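Section handout 9: paired folding examples.
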Amino acid sequence: MLVFMTNILDNFKERMPLIMGILNITKDSLFDGGKYTTFATIQNRINAIVREGADIIDIGGESSRPGAKSISVDEELSNIIPAVEFVKNQSDIPISIDTYKSEVAYECLKSGAHIINDITGLKSQKMLDLIKTNNCPVIIMHMYGEPATMQNNPLDVNEDYVVLDFLRSQSDLALSYGIKKHDILLDPGIGFGKTQNLNIKLISELNNIVKLGYITVLGVSRKSLVGAILNEEIQNRLVGSTIINFIGITNGAGIIRTHDVKETVWMRKIFIAFKEKKVPVY
């Protein structure tokens, strides 16, 4: 059994907020579903994420967009493992795995992944066991319902306490189970069973989650929230996503999960320059 003896995020704390580049090897993900169906296109995407300056790469093999259907463990692994192995052979960038299946998480950790990004927020006993045994960081995300039905009856703007209570209770559970505090990250789950007004409120009041004492992850890249505000299709949501991400980091987000790595890295440079009141030295 692999055991990670140090917190991989410690080496990056001076670079907060961190940029997490997304690689979805799926047929029907929201923005990039079907784009990376051959090993060559997967390699090109990985190389681009690294070249454009991401701090972490987040690899997913199953779509979690609203209405998405679950796939088998074997299919998910066949999507992900070759990508994990390629990243390990080409780069030292930390690898996050976007999965809620403990079997997938285990095989990916064996293959060299470092972080588990669990959209179900550690509801699985097997996932709790796996995270504790391997001492690896875990992203606890809030989702109301399941991907296939989560937008049928979403949480409304006055139900933000549901999200905060869940993240507090699940992080407390993780601590009580022996998972180290520095290995726990929290994600409000923008778009996962929430109205757009609640999504806006959660981002505007992100400090309420930050105050729980953990690194906060924000993922709004190209999502329907951006489309609803701008009345634009997904291909025209880059600027909107970047602006919302800027708002997120001003409110305390520690990791930005994005499809658009280069532009988000640029945004971070501007944020840091104004925060430190000086032009960076290259």
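Moving on to protein 2 of 2.
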Amino acid sequence: MSKAAQLAALIGSGQAQGDRNLVINGAMQVAQRGSVTGVTSGYGGADRFQFSRGGACTIDMSQSTDVPSGQGFPNSMKLDVNTADSSLAAGDFALFTQKIEAQNTQHLKKGTASASSVVASFWIKSPITGTYILELYDFDNSRHINKSYTINTANTFEYKTITFAGDTSGALNNDNGTGLQLGWWLAAGSTFSGGTLQTDWGADTAANRAVGQVNAVGDAANNIFITGVQLEIGDVATPFEHEDFGTTLRKCQRYFAKSWSQGSAVTTNAGAIGAACVGNVNRAFGNVFWPVTMRAAPTVTWYSGSTGTVNKWRNASQGTDITAASAIAGIGQSGYGFVLSSGIVGVTDTLQGHYQAVAEL
């Protein structure tokens, strides 16, 4: 059956309708945080994707315009090895992941006799050829399945598709916690590679997670690029589901949102949130609403609307920063109301601030 016929069959089955990709921001087009250097565990570059490691390795994460030719992708995620880990100890590892909200996975029917297989597809470019491991990990039941793929040519984008069988054990919770995690192993010490690769679903066994994985973080000159990430129900990868920027941004803002624009510094961006002083009690109050309902009540950091100083508001009338700590109260998934009190706030003063709200899995 041709690729077109396979896709038509999937569409006819109802499995390849719009919004079929379980991965958010697979085209790496939204990068609210911008470039982040020296990452040991955390986010940076393209939204929703996370790096973690054990050992000496650190990574610079950024959005790149280095992409596979003719595929319609404007961006990729660049993982630039900052500090190399050339001699892996047993517990050393490097892992690039995206966590998927459990309530978005219910149609996979995991834990039932009708469990559906899923197929991952992506473009990857690496300077290190050889065997790599892609993992699907079930956080609710501590189960995993791991498949190998090969980088054949150094520093060349290659398209990969990997199918994971359905899992008839371990139903996923219908909640806003982590259900599944899709993970690209980049390095693995013997703790994670000393056993037999877990190519069928099974209970978490560390030694079986990354058997055969090359060390792609062993040289500070190494740069790895990934884009076009899709995870969908079925056995056959369909063409990447491109979506408009605004749709992807709204999906990302469920987990991370900020009040200043992508690609600019907080100190140079206009449009800070304002607060008005009232009465004669040196008090300002107002409401902040996140751009979308967030996954959970977020952790919020305030920044001065002029200097960008953390945990400060800008008193624009007096040209000073004041402490924002008293504003952080009653935070919810949709926003919150705040009250600011300070001895330097006058009844006619105008306050300005920016926020960052984090509700990542």
